[in-house]
Each structure stands twice: as structure tokens, then as C-alpha cells.
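User: what does the whole thing look like in 3D?
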Amino acid sequence: MPDGSRSAEISSSYGADASPVRYKGVSKRYPGADTDAVHDLNLEIPAGEICVLVGPSGCGKTTAMRMVNRTVEMTAGDITIGDRSVKEGDAAILRREIGYVIQQIGLFPHRTIAENIATVPKLLNWDQARVDERVTKLLDLIGLDPEFADRYPSQLSGGQQQRIGVARALAVDPPVMLMDEPFGAIDPISRGRLQNEFLRLQAELKKTVLFVTHDVDEAIKMGDRIAVMKKGGEVAQYATPTELLMEPADEFVEDFVGADRALKRLALMRVRDVDLWNAPTTEAGQPSDPVVQALKTSEVPHAVLIDGENRPLGWLSLRDLEAERVPTEPDSTGVPTIDADTTLRDGLATLLANGSLYGTVVDGRGRLTGVLSVEIISDFLASKEAAEVAIPALARPHDD
Amino acid sequence: MIDFVKIASVNDEFFRDRSDGGCIQDNNLFCPNWVVDNFDRYVDPTLEHLVLVLAAVGIGFAIAFSLAILAHRRRWLASPFLAATGVLYTIPSISFFFLLLPLTGRGTTTAIIALTAFTLQIIFRNVITGLRNVPTEVTDAARGVGFTPRQLLWRVEIPLAMPEIIAGLRIATVSTVALATLAVFANGGGLGAQIIVGSNLTFKTGIIVAGSIAVIMAILFDALILLAGRLLTPWKRAAAL
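Assistant: Here's the predicted 3D structure for the full assembly of 641 residues, as C-alpha cells:
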């Protein structure tokens, strides 16, 4: 009996390492359609990476994803998980080893949160003790209080419900996850939080994830690799986010990622990841002359007034330094201070909002680490270096 | 076709039974003493009535539920099933009794067949509506995490259709309690016999007692099914909290 052998094989693969997913010449044509929804798709998603399928509506991205767990059956080609074709054996049994998260969440309204999370373990006939243990662990993993276990989905907010949706998909620790616009129906604030939470989870779990979205920004944020799809179900470009933004393969991709793609690249780097400038620093009451001398060779034409803890208080112009001693009141206070952990994009936004060419950069304790200038950012955008560094999604900055 | 001879003979007993003198003779609206003296005569008809209702709703549910599940799998079956049960629903019960006469004769079987036919439409319609109202994202998620079609039906779709199924069962049961009073025309027993006896005599107390028993039976059935429904759908109460 083929099903039996398959389920035996699979049960040993639960909790195993992530598997690569390969599309080999996969096509899908829906009955009665004149053209393919997905046409001759060839993709290789390395184990443990997030691959985002992105594109306008009707480009076949959801169809492409759904063929992996056969909720849509392909009409040509093959998809393998590890070295096994998804076509082997029974679809229901295949699906139990593939996490599945959808935009509309689809929790079972008649089952408690604990029962929802336990869905797949129950289908696999785990004993109750093991199920309970797993549910407790997953609630902890997604940061929900154990008291939620006995509630029903309708008693939870949308964001909480989708956390449960993710927990349900992770219940048997599947090597592959399919996520179809998982955060698309969540309000923007919760969406950002859920994205970050998922990236943190992924850092730990290292699943092979196929993630569908129509939102380029989400694709850039979540993807280790991005497949941009266009109408007709073909991949226009398959690349890392940086490559995509630096070297769009064609006009379609260029249009799709947007005219602001340079700015989007800034979201891929943190302020502390670039070489910051140094400005002369001094404390109030110190002699002015050494500072004035230092300013002559400095990259920044102003000095930074700091307190005893190396925290910036404001900028000192040459006029401030005309006196013999450094004044206690700087020329300009309240000039932008930028956290080293923010993205370059947010750093630039801060500079622009303040109408300033320079901003002091501080670490988590508020101590000066350097100066960010508009010039640094424009140099960064012009540099080839940024294009060559593929920054994995997990290592990338994610503003909370 | 009603056995007036038989009814008349029963009526003779009524004429002879004048234990309550004035009230009966004046045919007042309600004669409590007569009820106390004649309570026994309602026990068997009540039990018969109960059997008629339980049999009709039970068999009707089994048939309509199976048809609904079949029509849920094969969508094109829904319309013909709906039309067929609709025809059965609209045939007046009394005509149905007479139509069945050549086939099943007079008696409880005929009454149960006609009453069952009447429940099909109500139950079928509610079950199919309940199954169709299950949100598509829930069935999509269920398939996607690996439910087989059978598991999907029994563990997800039917439990979620339960409120509509229960609602259908309530309507079907209450209307069958009322309709079963007509079973007397098929010689099927039940409380109807007591009402007919009364109306032939224009004896108001008899009508009121038999009618009241039917009403109380309907209310009890309704409450019982409602309670069962509550127990079967705990998530509905949680949502209201």
C-alpha cells in the first residue's frame, strides 16, 4: 500500500532539517483556460531559506505555491521536497508535513486554541501527553499566554489569530512552510510586529518557506530570495533583495519594485553597518583652541558638544568656539540624533525631517558612535559594495 | 373515508359519561372535574403521538441528512433533491394519507410515511445551508493541513453546520407534533383522535386537553433540542461572551 510506506517515511522526517524545494518545468493550466496560470516554472529554494513569490494579482504566485501541497494540482512538470516528488502518495498525507498559513487565517471556529494548534498532531495520532507538551511549547514560542489555550478563535484579535495560524502550521515541525499573504489582512502595526516575530522564529527554526505576497516592501523585508512573477505565470527575476533592487532584470521588474528602489535598498542596511564620519567632540568648559584646530581637518564642519558620558548635547559652530572655553550652551540643540540600530532609510528620513545634512548617531545607551551625513547615504547608494553583499533576511534590520 | 361509525360508538361513551353533571351538559369551555375523571383516556393517544413524531422526525432526519451530504459532495444533485422534497412538503397531509391508501393501507405506517415526507424539505434545506455556510477559508485550511475529505466533513463541516442543522430539526419537530394530530385520518392514532371526538360533540374540554398536550409536547421537544444544540456548539456561547 503506497500510502502506508509514505507515511512511515514521513513520520521519520518530522522535526527533521529543512528540505530544499525544487520546481522543475512546472505548469498549470486551469480547465477551460486558454493560457497557463503558471508556465514552465523552474525554481530552486535552498533548505532553510525564505523564498518570496511576489507579483501583481493574477500572476500565478498563489497557484505556484499551492502546487507544492497539491491544493492545486500541476498539469506539467514536477516539484520535489528534498529528493521526493510531491506527486508520490496521497495528498492529505503529504500536506501534513507541510506547514500551511493563509491570509484569511482559517482557524477552526469550533475548536479551542489548543485544539487548533493540535490539529496536525491529532491527524497523526500523537498521544495526548505529547500533544499537550507540543501545544504548550508552541504557545510559548509565539508569545501567547497559556491561558489562551482554552479559548475559541472568535475571542482573539486578528493578530493573535494569525499567531495561532502560524503555530498550527508549525505544530509537527514541518521542514517546509507555505505562507499565502499571511499578514495581508492584519492591521499595519500588528503586521510589522508579526513579520518581525516570524523572522525571529525563522532564525531559530530555519524552515524552507514559500511566502506569497503582492507587497514589494514585504517581499524585500521577508525574503532571502525573491521571485518576481508576471502575468502568464513566468518568473521575471529570481534574486536576492539587494540584486533585485540594484539590477532589475527588465523594465517590468524595475516598474514593479518601484521608482523608489534606491530608497528601498536603504531599508536593507542599518546605520551602524556603514562607515560613519567622525566629528571632533568636546565637553563644556574645555579649551576651544584644540577643537578649532581639529575642525580644520574634520569631515564634519561642526564639533559635537558631549556630556561626561559621551552623550551628544548639540553642535558647536566655529562661532561658538570663538571664546577661550567651550560654552555650555551650544549653537544648535535638538539636532537629529539617530539610533545606530535604525535602518539607513529611517536615518535619512530623520535627517530630511530636520532639514539637516548631519545627524549624531548614538548606541543603545545614548552614547555617540559617529555622525551620519546625507553624503554617506548617497555614497552608499552609488557603491557597488552594497550590491555584492547578500544580506540574509534574518540578519537584516527590522524596525519594531 | 373516516370511520364515523367507530367515532360514533366512542361518542356514545361520552354521552353516557356524565359524571360532571352541569359543566358537561352546559358544554362550558373547560370542565376540570371531567379532566380529572377522564385523564386515563389521554395516556395512550399521547404515547402514540410521541411515537409518530419520533419515528417521522428520526427517519426524516436520517433520509434528509444523507441526501444533503450527497448533494454537498455532488453539487448538481442539490436542485433535484430540493425540488423533490419541496413537492412532498407541499402535498397536504390529508391528501397524502389517501394517496397512500392503496399502497400501505390505513394505519400508523401510512401516517409515519406522510409525516416523514413532510419533514424532508425542512431538514434537507437546513443541513445543506449549514454545510454551504462553512467559511471557505476554514475548509481551505483544513484541506491544506491534511484532512481527508471524510475527516473534513465529519470533523469540520458538520460540526460547523450544527446550528443550522439544529434549527431545522426544531422546526421539523414542532411542525410534526402539530401535523401528527391529523394522523387520525389515516387511522394512525395520536392525539388527533381525541380532538375529533371532541369536535364531533362540540365538546370544548376535550379539544382543549388534547390540544394542550400537543402544545406542551411541542414546547418540550423544542426545549430539549435547543439544549442539545447548546451542548453541541460550545463555541457559539464563547463568541457571545
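In plain terms: Residues 40-73 of chain B form the longest helix (34 residues). Confidence is low (pLDDT under 50) at residues 1-12 of chain B.
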